[in-house]
Amino acid sequence: MKTQQQTSEAVTTAAVRVKDLSISTTTGIQVVSDVSFDIAAGEVLGVVGESGSGKTTVGLALLGHTRSGLRITGGSVLVGGEDILDLQDGDLRRKRGSVISYVPQDPASSLNPALRIGVQLREVLEAHGRGNRRENEKRIAEMMREVALPDDPKYLARYPHELSGGQQQRIGLAMAFANRPRLIVLDEPTTGLDVTTQATVLSTVRDLAAAHGVAALYVSHDLAVVAALARRVAVMYAGRIVEVGPAENLFKSSAHPYTRKLVAAIPRLSGGRALLGIPGHAPSPGQRPPGCSFAPRCPMHLAACDEEVPSLVPVGEGHSARCIRAHEVVKQLQVSVADRVDAENPDANEAVLTLRDVVARYGKVEVLHSINLTLGKRECLAIVGESGSGKTTTARSIAGLHHDWSGSVLLGDQELETAARSRSRESRRQIQYIFQNPYGSLNPRKTVGESVGQPLSIFGIAKGVEADHRVAEMLEQVSLSASYSRRYPDQLSGGERQRVAIARALISSPSVLICDEVTSALDVSVQAAIVDLLGKLQHEIGVSMVFVTHNLPLVRSIAQKVAVLADGNILEYGDTAQVLTSPQQSYTRQLIANTPSLETTTRASGLNIG
Amino acid sequence: MSTTQETIARLEGAATPTPPVRSSTLLARALRLWRTRIGALFVLLLVIIAIFGPYVAPHDPSEFITLPNTPPQGNAVFGTDYLGQDVLSRFLHGGLDLMVTAAVSTALGLLLGIAIGLVAGYSRNALDDVLMRAMDVMMAFPQIMLVLLAVSLVGPQKWVVIASIVLTTAPRVARVARGAALPVIERDFVAAMETMGQSRIRIMTGELLPNILGPMMVEASLRLTYSIGTIAALAFLGLTSDPNAPNWGTMIQQNRIALSFQPWGALLPIIAIALLTLGTGLIGDGIARTAAGIDRKRDNG
Amino acid sequence: MAMVSGPYGLPEDGDHSMTWFRHGGIPAFVLRRLLLGVLVLALVSVVVFIATQALGDPAQALLGRDATPERLAALRQELNLDVSPFEQYLNWLGGLMQGSLGDSLTTQRPVADLLSGRLVNSGVLVLCAAVVSIPLSIALGSWAALRREKSVDTVSSNLMLVFASLPDFVVAVLLVIFFSTTVLHVLPAISPVPPGQLPWNNPAILILPTVTLVMTVVPYIARNMRGSMIEVLESDFVEMARLKGLPERVVLIRHALPNAIGPAFQSIALSLAYLAGGIVVVEYAFNYPGIGSALKDAVANHDVPVVQALAMLIAAVYVVVNLLADIATILVTPRLRTRL
Lengths: 610, 301, 340
Description:
heterotrimer; B: 301 residues; MetI-like fold; 2 domains; 13 helices; 72% helix; C: mainly alpha; 14 helices; 73% helix; flat
């Protein structure tokens, strides 16, 4: 039981105090260990980590909730002096939605599709004691205004599917703030939203938290977003907090090698630096080494690191890191590797792919209005736009996956048919496509070797032993050992699967590679590694690339030319450096302004990272 | 894979070694479950009885042993049927026909249904609508009724029975096959093959079919169970080409009257059919559970 | 069906033809489905006609092998078989529209007379089965989903599996063996209903046939219900409802159940449609005079008009029941409503 002193301490110093939180699977494997942090009223604490770090699990645990198969095994979560983890069913339920709220990641699936949003808003009030109909109606109208949504009954009568993603998420926020909680846990609430919508949601969160003195825990994998919102940040790796401190200190001079590497992997709008990934991958629960979990991948590894788990070492005001060499790390300067992207390309003027007045349709709706683009030899052209801009349609039309288009697409000087099937085998071989979702682009019933080798038999390039040789060679080129050839996709991580997809695309020696949001589903460090690989391959093999993405800073790390697409039109088109540093169109300027980046946030606080 | 590894696989996108999943492995894994084993045992037992039964029958199935409906005694271990023939001998002879007919018609129905379902699902245009409407019309009648109609109009010949079961099984299989294929068709690896210009047929057989094998195996055992039931019911209703031939279904109908004092004439074949259908049902359920367990893990990876 | 919005959620403009028909909400939807149902029935009638009249020769079947050509011709004329098949079809269809189902070849009396009593009998039986099985299977399926993986779920799942696998006549005979002839002797083994009397005059005869039908239908619906309930219970919005602090009762009744029950309607519809035609074996097993046994007799006697009438009747039941299920699903799934 907590002593009187501890309880009053908790009340006066922090609104939320988490101490030694441990979560494991029901079979005893440790998933989250020794997580401790404080959040003051009105403060936003960011928790960043890649997949498998345990950040979402920690977020849910603050509501006393675990997903099936998991169990909270130790620690305490003090909110307003009370330990949430000590509460029983009825008491716990009363706290949820009133004292602690949750904003989920996917707003579309978290709202009941069969209930009107007004009903779903009202029930969070009714469940916590507010029974008066009229009062609730007033309260709901107020809530809607707070999140900048219409407060009329007609709007409230809508069903969730009648709202856009951004509106759905704001309903989620309204429900979370409804009962003026002390703590809000936000679980990557802007994933999948447009940059512009994301900016709105983030500012809403910031304003509401400050206005009502609510402590907020913001879980995310996106460091730039967290930097824009949170004053303090905690970095999680393999179930532990490896660094925690004020945002600027954390990003400008990280005290943990993992954080440093993570920061180095983030694309910069100003460019000039190559992105570096982290070799290897994070250990899964149950396979964590006895000492520091990051040791196997750490460039500063010592024998002592493997002996026991390091404890958090303070390196500055409120800044500590779980590394025995933390003091050395924090003093290091940021090292930049020269960017391959800006290197000279003498072949760029030779056009490999040309689009002239391409107009594309879906049924009766025209989604691309007269697109004109050129891709030079050994060049990478990025097509950037938000969702609905038509960038994927452009990519699919080039590849012949989308048939309903007119205009001309020229490969060299040869015009291509609209559908891939109608094209000559040679044309098909020359244009290869890599998809966004690594979990869907490989046939789960085929081994890696079979998938990578398939183009060889389809295009009649090689077979038998020779085919096997080429497959092995290709795998090595994408930094996968030849032994991967016998594995199945479900044995591979997301990053590894994308490498396999790249190998499959390049094995037939195409002249054009189309990458459709190929890193959007990957962790930041994995994304950096894949982008680095693509750049390297482009130089070694000499393939030209069309790189479709919504991530503006990423463009700077990979493409020489960029085309900005909006509503089916190209708004700006030119050299990447030029377009991003001095954009001509206001749309582009807005886009850049709304994109959270470490540079702008840290620049705002007077420090320069980039 | 244990629940622990399930949870771990769910927690993260990082690699977790999972055993590869192929159809042979699916069957092998399904056989690790008790229910699949028991089901397989039942089926095996009855197949053995059906195949080898005629060789070990003590009497000729049409031989008159003694008075009709005599309870078990001396030379008739299970007594005699409504005509005085030996129940045991007739029982041992009466299963093969049923099983072979059921197996053949189910297999053909599956092939036809899978073909239609894949073609319809992959065409993504008017052909899909037309085919599925046609299937709807076929499915407006319960299977037994259509088979009944066919048999009564043309005759209870073997080919009529098989054809009508094939024609009533195929639409149902097509529905399920199409439903299982649609999410696979949406996945990018199919689009990847399309960009490379792989032919439609090759995509259906090489990419789609291997990925719907799980649901198809479950459907196969379900259809087999129904086919056995339908063929036996036909015999029960008296619609066979030779009412005097030993047949489990007809035996039940013929010997029902004597249930209160000589139950074995109907009881033996009833138990046999019950165990057979239970067996196929258990196998199907075992495969379904194994496939569901694997899919859950795979989707989270 | 036509979509209201394009791929980006933008409304499609330009197609103003038949606007009400395409986008008139639920009444238009019902009308569309009705028309579709009529189309299906029309197609079915063609199939039935071809199958019964064009393939077999009723005159030959009636008179047997050694009928003389003159007698065959005379009978054919009497039965209006001497005109082209197309004309025969139109005659028959016309008759159907006017409510005349033709005359039975065996009894020479209107088919409607023959079937009306049997229709009532079968109707009563199906009603009993439906009234018992629908609530039972929904409750069983939901409960099994709630107590997932615990003993209740395992036991009921296994039981459902057993009854789903056994053919219905096997269940019927086993029930008879158990309750009537061999183990216990409490229920009648056969269920005859003397002509002119109603089934409920002697309710005991309804019990075993109803139980048989229930055991055929419940496993299918219950499994469906369990599956969709589990899916809903594991969904994000149910998790969110719990995280909002809603009482469990509210979570189950307001959030889980309405979303889980949609798919169950489809399986209920299919089961009812199945009962309409599949009842033939059970009725035969219990000597119950319903449309199932009428069908069996008609088929055995090559009584073509009766067969045709019954086939159309069963198809009509299928269409109506499916329509009702579709409407019910739309009502419970708002997301589908806005597309209308």
